[in-house]
Amino acid sequence: MSLSADYTGGIALASLLRGVPIAGIHPCRDDVSAALWLAGMNVRYKSPSTGHLTAICEIDPIQAEEIIFEGCSMYFSESENQNIFRSFLKLMDNPLSCVWADFVNTSVVTGRTNNLRIKGFLEGMDALGEAFIFGTDDPPHWFEALGYSLVDTISAGEYLNKNDAVLNSYSFSVAKR
Asked: Three-state DSSP class for 28?
C-alpha cells in the first residue's frame, strides 16, 4: 500500500506500482484534517487511522505489507506522525512487512539551513499553504521510540554519492516491526 501526498507524484507512483493499493493524503492545515483519496473516493477524517485504511484498502495485517508513506511526514506534526506510524504497526503483523518513509531534517523545518535553494522552496510551499512542520535528524531513533526495529536510513546525498546540502537534508527510511 502506498500513502502519498497527492501533489508529490502519487498518481505517477501508482502507474509504476500497478496492483499496489494507492491512497493519497492531502494535509489540510485549517483543521488539522486530511483528505484521503483512493480510486476516486474522497474521505475526510480528523487523523489518519488504521480503521480507515483497512476499510478502504482491504489490508490484511497477517499478509506481508509494504507501506509507503511518501511525501507526507513533513506536513503532519510530530504527535500526528507518531499516531500515524503507531497505526502502521497494527498493520504489520507479518515479519516481512515494512514501512518506507521520507523525512526532512529539523533544520529544514526551523529554517536554520541557511541554504537559499531550501529557503526558496519552503517559501513557495508556505505560499501554497503547505508548510513543512515536522522533521527529524535521527529517523532510526525516532522509529525505535515508536516500537519499530530494523530501521535502515540513508540520505538522498548518500544514496547519490553527492555532498550536497539540499540532498543531505532529505532522507529515506525503511522500518520493520
From this structure: strand
CA dihedral for 90, 94, 100, 105, sign (positive or negative):
positive
Does residue 57 carry a pLDDT above 70? no
Backbone angles phi, psi at 35, to 5 degrees: -100, 130
pLDDT digits (tens, 9 = 90+) for 119-161: 998 988 888 778 899 999 999 999 999 999 989 999 999 999 9
Q: Residue count of the chain, please give it.
A: 177
What gap in Å lies between CA 60 and CA 90, rounded to an integer?
10
User: Are 1 and 65 spatial neighbours (Cβ–Cβ below 8 Å)?
Assistant: yes
d(CA 84, CA 61): 16
Can you give the C-alpha Rg of the chain in angstroms? 16
